[in-house]
């Protein structure tokens, strides 16, 4: 039996070496470009800033709707987006609710259904919520309205992200 000899010719050796070095150099040039292109996507989302919305003196026990704008940074794209909140106070306690219905995302209104006084009402499929945002069983929404993170500074109410009730 003849034994096959595995010899590498000078030409093959040069080919392998040049291919390896070329590949290494190409990777060295491409990696920073790929990193630059993907960086905004890979970066963790920064906490949304708190936005000044209204003077605390204007708050009442009756929920009022306040509109405000936030700076939204989405990868490479920065934009200003509108937000709304239903806000009321009870003594020193301020509650700020998202108006987005937890059924299919319509906008809820306070006290707009004559048959259901002092409740948040969603006209799309007759969803109902209590004043504190709790969904009324037997109506389409299966969860409470989201609550805005909020803080009071120098007599003004600042709102952050709307989060599901009880979420940190
Ligand atoms: S979207 Fe509000 S009840 Fe359906």
Automatic annotation (TrEMBL):
Keyword Methyltransferase belongs to the record: no
General function of this protein: Component of the menaquinol:cytochrome c reductase complex. The Rieske protein is a high potential 2Fe-2S protein.
Subunit structure: The main subunits of the menaquinol:cytochrome c complex are a Rieske-type iron-sulfur protein (QcrA), a cytochrome b (QcrB) and a cytochrome c (QcrC).
Highest classification ranks of the organism: Bacteria, Bacillati, Bacillota, Bacilli, Bacillales
Family annotation (Gene3D superfamilies): Rieske [2Fe-2S] iron-sulphur domain, Single helix bin
TM region(s), chain numbering: 12-34
Keyword entries, A-Z: 2Fe-2S, Disulfide bond, Electron transport, Iron, Iron-sulfur, Membrane, Metal-binding, Oxidoreductase, Transmembrane, Transmembrane helix, Transport
UniProt superkingdom: Bacteria
Record-given protein name: Menaquinol:cytochrome c reductase iron-sulfur subunit
Domain Rieske: residue ranges: 51-159
Family statement: Belongs to the Rieske iron-sulfur protein family.
Pfam families (UniProt xref): Rieske
Molecular function terms from GO: 2 iron, 2 sulfur cluster binding; metal ion binding; monooxygenase activity; oxidoreductase activity, acting on paired donors, with incorporation or reduction of molecular oxygen
Keyword Hydrolase: no
């Amino acid at each position: 039996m003849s034994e096959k000899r595995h010899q590498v010719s000078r030409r093959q050796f040069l080919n392998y070496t040049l291919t390896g070095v070329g590949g290494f150099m190409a990777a060295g040039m491409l990696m920073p470009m790929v990193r630059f292109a993907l960086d905004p996507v890979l970066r963790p989302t920064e906490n949304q800033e708190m936005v000044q919305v209204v003077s605390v003196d204007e708050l009442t026990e009756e929920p009022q709707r306040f509109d405000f704008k936030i700076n939204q940074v989405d990868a490479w794209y920065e934009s200003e987006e509108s937000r709304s909140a239903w806000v009321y106070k009870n003594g020193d306690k301020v509650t700020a609710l998202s108006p987005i219905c937890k059924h299919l995302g319509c906008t809820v209104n306070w006290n707009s259904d004559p048959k259901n006084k002092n409740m948040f009402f969603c006209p799309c499929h007759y969803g109902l919520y209590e004043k504190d945002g709790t969904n009324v069983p037997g109506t389409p929404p299966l969860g409470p309205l989201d609550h805005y993170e909020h803080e009071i500074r120098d007599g003004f109410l600042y709102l952050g992200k709307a989060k599901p009730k009880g979420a940190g």
